[in-house]
Write a structure and sequence with these properties.
The chain has 472 residues and is α+β, with helices and mostly antiparallel strands. It has four domains: 1-30; 31-115, Immunoglobulin-like (Sandwich), CATH 2.60.40; 125-205, Immunoglobulins (Immunoglobulin-like); 229-470, no CATH class. Helix content is 25%, strand content 18%. It has nine helices and 19 strands. The strands form five sheets. A five-stranded mixed β-sheet has the order 2-8-7-4-5, with no helix packed on it. Strands 10-16-15-12-13 form a five-stranded mixed β-sheet, with no helix packed on it. A three-stranded antiparallel β-sheet has the order 1-3-6, with no helix packed on it. α8 (432-438) crosses α9. The longest helix has 22 residues, at 269-290. The radius of gyration is 43 Å and the shape is rod-shaped.
Length: 472
């Protein structure tokens, strides 16, 4: 039996004999080793790539053949091969050989690649709102067949990063600008093939939203809904209808989602007007209690209850605090009892200070959309004061140029009545229900029950005079 070792010895012997007899070296019959071939073990496409390297003894000239060794070989110095045609589903083997300088070809190295389904699913069917007046429209989509329910989407582009999901809707979590926005959606199949994109374009005009934002909920139903919510909030034990996470924040793009009163986007015009009426009533009754010989003892012992909710009673408390200081000042300096003159003096920018108690009137601070009122104090500068368009300090036209309380005024600034109606709060004719609620004359203030009120008119009568002054 001839072993590989004895065979090698025989070749060496023959070579020596040839060299001795002819004086020429023998011809090289030793082929190179078969190349090492590799590739992707599972390809989901139609054109996988094979690669190879020499195992030694060759000169870097290779030949390859796909799925056979008996046909035509392709000679190359490359070390990779990717078909330029679509391979059918199944197993495909690439055979690679290497030559040496003597022209000997190695046996074949090979590698098998299984090509699976390479037919992509159909593009998803995408739809959405054809005209969205808000900033966050919603798109939806469904499979058109051939996929496995895994989708990817991208907004306004097909070249960036795709978001993979099994959901079938998308609503942006940020505000989109006006214009056309297109959502592209693809679907994958079990073999990993992605479909072409289905798409749908949404046009955002935002006109209706902007109108609602500027008008401050001019639709009556929403206006009075806000008014009632404010009036019915009874702190500290009643339901806080607009507070913290319960502040409504509509983002559906409708007119109602754009309500605005000059500062708040969470409290609409109706809600603020109810607060302002509460401020007026509170000012009148605080003035009544403060206008008394015992004003000092009252002010020193009085406590302001802060409710942080912008409701009617929150307005009452704010108004009572300012009115009681003005009432005490008027009594102290000998002015006649006139809460309305005092209130309009305050609303026009006058603040008074009482040395004996060490404090006076001041600015009213309210809350903005998206801010939890529980996190702030109403009379601190941790939140911005209300702008003129939604402020308790909006003077009557023709207000006096000077204050009769100038001698005790800490601040005197004559506010000018804003021109035009843009951003102005809408004070609407009271409904029958609102009139009924206000048609009362309490004997005592809910803030101070130790002394009866001197006021003889009803809350409704005071509000009607206030409303009339707003239109002067």
């Amino acid at each position: 039996m001839k072993t590989a070792r004895s065979y090698a010895i025989s070749l060496a012997t023959i070579s020596f004999v040839v060299l001795f007899l002819t004086g020429c070296p023998p011809f090289d019959y030793m082929p190179p080793a078969a190349p090492i071939v590799t590739g992707t073990t599972l390809a989901n496409g139609t054109t996988p790539t094979w690669s190879w390297s020499s195992s030694g003894g060759g000169n870097g000239t290779f030949s390859y053949q796909l799925n056979g060794e008996t046909g035509e070989w392709t000679v190359t110095t490359a070390t990779t091969y990717t078909p330029d045609f679509t391979l059918p589903i199944g197993t495909h083997i690439l055979y690679v050989q290497e030559s040496d300088s003597a022209g000997n070809w190695s046996t074949s190295g090979s590698f098998s690649i299984a090509v699976s389904d390479h037919t992509p699913p159909a593009a998803p069917f995408v739809t959405g709102t054809t005209l969205a007046n808000g900033t966050t429209p919603t798109w939806s989509w469904s499979s058109s067949g051939g996929g496995n329910g895994t989708f990817s989407y991208q907004l306004n582009s097909e070249t960036g990063e795709w978001t993979v999901t099994i959901a079938t809707t998308y609503t942006p979590d940020f505000a989109l600008p006006a214009g056309t926005h297109t959502l592209y959606v693809q679907e994958c199949d079990s073999a990993g093939n992605w479909s072409l994109s289905g798409s749908f374009s949404v046009v955002l005009s935002i006109n209706e939203y902007n109108i609602g934002y500027e008008d401050g909920f001019y639709t009556d139903s929403k206006y009075w809904e806000g008014y009632d919510d404010s009036y019915l909030t009874e702190p500290p034990d009643g339901p806080i209808l607009y507070r913290g996470s319960e502040i409504p924040a509509l983002d559906d793009g409708s007119y109602e989602a754009g309500y605005y009163d000059g500062l708040w986007q969470a409290y609409n015009d109706g809600y603020f007007v109810s607060y302002d009426y509460g401020f007026t009533i509170g000012f009148s009754e605080g003035y009544d209690i403060g206008y008394h010989p015992d004003w000092y003892a009252f002010l020193i012992n009085d406590a302001h209850s802060e409710y942080y909710d912008g409701s009617f009673m929150d307005g009452y408390q704010d108004g009572f605090s300012e009115g009681s200081v003005f009432g005490a000042v008027d009594y102290k300096i000998g002015l006649p009892f006139d809460w309305e003159d005092a209130m309009w003096d305050y609303r026009s920018g006058t603040d008074v200070f009482i040395d004996e108690v060490g404090f006076g009137s001041g600015e009213i601070y309210l809350y903005e959309c998206g801010i939890d009122p529980n996190a702030y104090y109403a009379k601190t500068k941790s939140v911005r004061p209300k702008t003129r368009s939604g402020s308790v300090r909006l003077p009557r036209e023709g207000a006096a140029a000077s204050s009769p309380r100038a001698s005790v005024a800490s601040v005197m600034k004559q506010l000018e009545k804003a021109e035009g109606t843009e951003g102005q709060v809408s004070y609407r004719a009271l409904t029958d229900a609102a009139r009924t609620d206000l048609d009362i004359r309490p004997e005592y203030s809910p803030r101070f029950s130790e002394r009866s009120l001197k006021l003889t008119d009803t809350w409704l009568q005071r509000i009607e005079r206030y409303r009339a002054s707003l239109t002067q």
